[in-house]
Amino acid sequence: MKQRDYNLDLVKTLAIIATVGIHLNACGSICQIYSKTWNFFVLFGSLLRFCVPVFCMATGYLLYTKDSIDINKILKKVLKFAIIFVLAEIVYRISYCPYMKYLYGEKIVLHNIIEDILQGNIKPHLYFLQIISLVYLFAPLGILIVKNENKELSYLLKLWIILSMCTLFLADTFNIRIFKIFNIYILNGAYNFIIYAMLGAYIRKYKKIHVNFNTVLCILGFFIGYLGIVFLMWKLSKTSGQSDYSIWDSVNIFTFLMSYSLFVLALKVKINSNKIKKILTLVSKNTLGIYLVHVLFTDFIHNMDLDYINFFGIEKILILFIDLFIVLFLSLGISILAKKIFQRN
Predict the structure, then answer these.
(1) N or C, fewer C-beta in 10 Å, the chain?
(2) Are 54 and 259 in contact (CB under 8 A)?
(3) pTM (two decimals)
(4) Closest C-alpha to 29, from 15, 44, 16, 14
(5) pLDDT per residue over 97-129, tens digit each?
């Protein structure tokens, strides 16, 4: 029996906390640019940008380092994600109907809802299921590469960092014309999440090297990435005269620095407490459930105008963190309950 990797549970726990935090903090986007509330929105939101890359790294860490894999199991897993995708969208639509009818006074027309879904207007949060499905579909090839590579993976990752993380990022952010030539390769696509998964596998394969990496440099790398995102968020918003979130949505060297540094730091942590191990295991096993359920609570908070977008006082900021804890706790509870119900059936 394999020993559970509690450090990876810690990684996934931090990632799901960051995900929920981002969605609760989203209300700050409607605030006046450079107001105290907007500044907190930028500072807090930028701190959490590692969530999706780290999830992909955690998936690759486990999946791409297997000795072999059953393609049928992969296809079943992807089919499961597809079914969850459809069911989640239906649940989100149904949950939104009371807001439409009683809060906004809009008519609920089933035909329009179906047509809207068929047009591809799905809940933005569900893109994560598409990303993970892509990571799983690449698994047979990913395992083959990781298993048989001899420094080729290191070369691939370095090339990716130079071309996609740096060159294309600079070209898109600062409109440097000479770098635009690289856009013909369409390097900034969803493939980046597969490479993040490959990075996770690379870290596990050469775990000793990464875990022994200087802790101070890892912390420094995280904060350099964080400050880089904050600085560019402010600079780009000032240039455009309105909130510019392109740095948050793009694949860039600063997000990479945060994600890699956090991942390595989490692997370094010594977890001795059995209580903490149980909590981390519980959250880690329910990350997908928490991800799907928390949207219902964040939608309720946003639609009922319960967002606390006035961060002029410390007490207002504390309310955000209280909301974060409550949403995480309720989402975890519902996820555990749903699992038990489905297992019985």
Answers:
(1) N
(2) yes
(3) 0.91
(4) 44
(5) 888 777 777 777 777 777 777 777 778 888 889
